[in-house]
Design brief:
This protein is mainly α. The chain is built from 5 helices and 3 strands.
Length: 212
């Protein structure tokens, strides 16, 4: 009977071990190369997207800001658009809309973000006059301050025991919708005190509505 000597068995195992290690190394290198290639392709795609986005922004700035008078019209239109949209959001509270506070808070924030983007185009356009740029920057700051003030007042109102509240703040007035079946005189006084402590609006420019 043919017998394999012990040293030969050990030698064979060593060869198999070395071959297995080499094969594993080659497979690992191949996987790494594929992964690296995929990553590079992903980076190239993202870079192309960013370059396209930047090109679109620059094109948009050129198209929107050829005439300085047109830039002023854009700034003025943002104010009108915001006031009209917020007025609509406030009056919609009288309708039976499910998840009113969630939907219109998102709509309000989306509106503000859109207006800021539009003003940013004017600010970043190299052809914009310095006066118009400053006006656009001030309008951006005002939008940001309004958003911050709205959230602050909403938090204070909810702190008084109301389930929810949404605030719409414009240049001419402030509108508040609170989640409540009824608004007593005491409730109105609480809300008015909060608004007057946080803003300069007088009572005639503070509008409060309940929403069940």
């Amino acid at each position: 009977m043919f017998k394999i000597k012990r040293p030969a068995i050990i030698g064979l195992l060593v060869v198999l071990l070395v071959f297995t290690g080499y094969l594993n190394h080659q497979l690992t290198q191949q996987a790494q190369r594929k992964s690296s290639k995929d990553y590079q392709n992903h980076e190239l795609i993202e870079l192309a997207k960013n370059e396209k986005y930047q090109e679109d922004v620059e094109t948009g700035m050129t198209e929107l800001n050829i005439d300085p008078a047109e830039e002023v019209d854009i700034i003025d239109s943002t104010k009108t658009e915001e006031n009209d949209a917020l007025e609509t959001m406030y009056t919609e509270a009288s309708k039976n809309i499910k998840n009113y506070f969630v939907e219109y808070r998102l709509s309000r924030d989306k509106l503000r973000a859109s207006l800021v983007d539009r003003l940013d185009i004017i600010v970043n356009n190299k052809n914009t006059s310095e006066d118009v740029r400053k006006e656009a920057q001030m309008e951006i700051m005002k939008l940001g301050n309004n958003s911050e003030k709205e959230l602050q007042i909403e938090g204070l109102i909810k702190g008084k025991g109301f389930d929810d509240a949404i605030v719409f703040l414009t240049d001419k007035d402030i509108k508040i919708v609170v989640s409540s079946a009824e608004l007593t005189e005491q409730d109105m006084v609480k809300i008015l005190d909060i608004v007057k402590s946080e803003t300069d609006y007088d009572n005639n420019n503070i509008k409060i509505m309940k929403k069940q």
